């Protein structure tokens, strides 16, 4: 299962792939069950994974910054006492 495919949640590149997959499913209602749209689906999953990993990387950097900031504030409190 993949994440929510709402447009506001993804990059323009992934949105284009998502739209292509939805169009393929609409045009080939029965062939989709036989794997007709699998190539587009694979590229969509790859794009969504790259987005997820980028968000994960950004959140990790943000948390590392906050952790360092909190440690420095704690040191400043201790030295002022």
UniProtKB/TrEMBL annotation:
It is found in: Mitochondrion. It comes from Allacma fusca. Belongs to the CMC family. It holds the Pfam family Cmc1. Its main location: mitochondrion. Keywords: Disulfide bond, Mitochondrion. InterPro entries: Cyt_c_biogenesis_Cmc1-like. PROSITE patterns: CHCH (PS51808). The lineage of its organism: Eukaryota, Metazoa, Ecdysozoa, Arthropoda, Hexapoda. This is COX assembly mitochondrial protein. GO terms for cellular component: mitochondrion.
């Amino acid at each position: 299962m993949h994440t929510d495919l709402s447009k506001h949640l993804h990059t323009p590149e992934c949105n284009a792939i998502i739209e292509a997959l939805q169009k393929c499913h609409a045009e080939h209602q029965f062939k989709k069950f036989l794997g007709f749209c699998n190539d587009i689906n694979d590229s969509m999953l790859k794009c969504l994974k790259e987005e997820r990993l980028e968000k994960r990387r950004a959140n990790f950097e943000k948390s590392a910054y906050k952790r360092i900031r909190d440690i420095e504030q704690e040191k400043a409190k201790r030295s002022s006492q």
